[in-house]
Every structure is written in C-alpha cells, then in structure tokens.
Amino acid sequence: MERPSLEFNLPDTHEEGKLYVVDSLNNLNKLNVCPAESQRSLEEEENTAGTGERIAGSNTRNQCWFFITFILTLIISLALVSFVIFLILQTRNEVDQISRRLLSEKKNIEDLKKINNIILKHLNQSGIKE
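RE: above sequence
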C-alpha cells in the first residue's frame, strides 16, 4: 500500500487560511494513519488530557487517604486490644483476691465448727441440760 504524501504545495494564503489548512492536514493524517476506533480514543485523549493528570492526582490522594485510614484503624484496634487485656488482668487479680478471702473464711468457719463441737461435747459431759 502506498502512503499518500503529506507534502503539499500550498498557495499563498492569509494566516487564518494557513492555520485552517494545517489543521485539515493534521485531521487527514489522523484519518489515514489511525483506524476509526483508535481515532475516537485519540480524540478522547485530547479532550481529557487535563483531566488525566487530575485522575492520577486523585488516585494518589485516594491511596494516601486509604493508608492514613488503615494506619489509624490499626492504632485504634491496638489501643482497644490493650485496654481489653488490661481489663482481663485487673479482673483476674480481683478474682484471685476474692478466692483468697473465701479460702480464709472457709478455714475460719471450719475452726468455728470444731470449737462448737468441742463446746457441745463439754456441755454434754458436764450434764448441763437445757
């Protein structure tokens, strides 16, 4: 296939005419070089050239916010887990203290039962009846 030459002998025209001819040649070149579908994508790229940078900046900003949110979530989770562990340890200490008190009270009650039994035996032996 032969490629059409892009060099044309243009007659002398005013500046506006020259710009129009150059623009027309550019459009003709795009039509010859690019198929119709890729032409649309080229036009879309030209139309969104400024927004592409905004989208890239927005992506970077979104990633930054994601990481900041992720780190804050991790810190808050760590604080909550630490608080729960602290509460578990405090509860364990309280339960240990209560257990020790119950054991000592149990020993005291057993001692009182022994003393009561001794007193009852003594009263029964002495013959004092109610």
